[in-house]
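note to self: dont lose this again. the chain is below, predicted strucutre after it. 251 aa total, dont forget to put it in the shared folder this time
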Amino acid sequence: MENNKRLIKQHMRRIRLRTILAVLAILVLMVIFALKAPAFNVSKFEVNGNRYYTDDEIANMGNCNLGVNIFTGVDCGDIRDRLMRDPYMARVNVRRKLPSTVTINITERVQTAGIVYGESFVVIDEEGIVLRKTTVDPKVTVLRGLNISGMTLGEPIQVEEEVLLRQCMDIIKAMNENNMYFKSITISQVEAKAYVLDDLMVRGLPDNIIFALENNDIQLVVQELFNQGKEKGTIKVTGDNYVSFTTKLED
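---
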């Protein structure tokens, strides 16, 4: 009698277990079927933070395809890895946004300067990372007086005059932070020449130029010259915080 009861209980447990497994299997199949529904096909790649590249260029670089299932057809890690191969990419984050959107959040490196290299320019960001080489005017402050000894895309530029490069980048930083723009900077062991226009330059030691920028001295002189219609000459900055101007473009 006891054996029969035990057998009945074991049989009932097996039935319950089979029922539970069957229900779970059905639920899994239902979920899989639901997740493969057209509603989960990618209809949009939403790109944020890009300035240098367009949304379409980012999508092409990441091998992003519309119409694929957002779960099985999208590899967020692969998209990120593809984009991070480009030197302009500082950080990339890729996420699914249900039901049908993939967001790509980008932090780009910003073009800051172009170093003259023969007939070309090597474009770098504020950290000196090489972004590209071009024969076309890069529309950033051009640096002269530096000798490039090595360059690799996505890596820091190598120059023989590391101190001078750092001084140039410090001038550019002060320029950007104080509402000023220099078309080019010619640097040497003696001084820096920062050109507002082709025939209008600021001349002095890098530290003196930076100090004058932070005090708005150079900006006031340049504005006054423009008001007078003067676009040629030399603005000289000395160590005693003295700024002077001569109509002669000094060598």
